[in-house]
Amino acid sequence: MIDRYDTPHEALPHETTVLVVSQEKTCFGREFTALFDEIRSNNVCDHLIIEEQYHTVDELPDYDTLIQYGVWVVHYSALLADDSDAIRSYLEDESVPDETQIVVVFDTNDDQLASDATKNLQGEYSDDLVVTSTETELVYYLLGHFNTASPCTAAGLAYLVSWNNMVADLVGPFRDAD
To answer: Which ranges of the chain would DSSP assign to H, the alpha helix?
Structure first.
């Protein structure tokens, strides 16, 4: 259940769960878990717990659960899947909260293909969508977000409390993230 925070102290430690949507178990030749282990090991805030949950497009939770994830990592394989209508719909109509960080990962060794895909994805979906085509871009983008939305800084903690309370109000008090 996502509860409203009455004080910033209630947000400590803060657990954030990244939604990973992919038809693949690997990204840039590594398992996603190894990428998140690297991100956790480079996280400088001891009050931030980073977890991840994996779903294929046919296993997506319902909307009330999806909006509880502040960060989505969407592997391009999820956008190409036969049953990708739901994830495409969320990205096209911008129905997720504005503060949600959505990163589409396009892992290929073909720089031109990655560049073309980036242009197409950013033209087709929300302007807020971030497309990464290298492992370094993905790791640094996520670390940058976690360093900004960090409970170890006053501004980051205020952001996390505001985001949490906004989502709690949208979802209501009786819903749990999967």
So the answer is: 32-42, 63-66, 76-80, 85-92, 111-124, 135-148, 154-171
Is residue 1 within 8 Å of residue 57, measured between CB atoms? Answer: no
DSSP 80-122: HSTT-HHHHHHHHTT-S-TT-EEEEE---S-HHHHHHHHHHHH
**Residue 7, token pair as written in the block:** 């004080």
| Residue 15 tokens, joined | 């657990």
- Under a CB-based contact definition with an 8 Å cutoff, are residues 152 and 48 in contact? yes
pTM over 0.85, yes/no: yes
SS3 46: coil
Residues 3-19: tens digit of each pLDDT: 899 999 999 999 999 99
* Beta carbons of 138 and 103 less than 8 angstroms apart: yes
Burial 118-135 (b: 16+ CB within 10 A, else e): beebeeebbeebbbbbbb
Q: Lowest mean pLDDT: which of 82-86, 114-118, 123-127?
A: 123-127
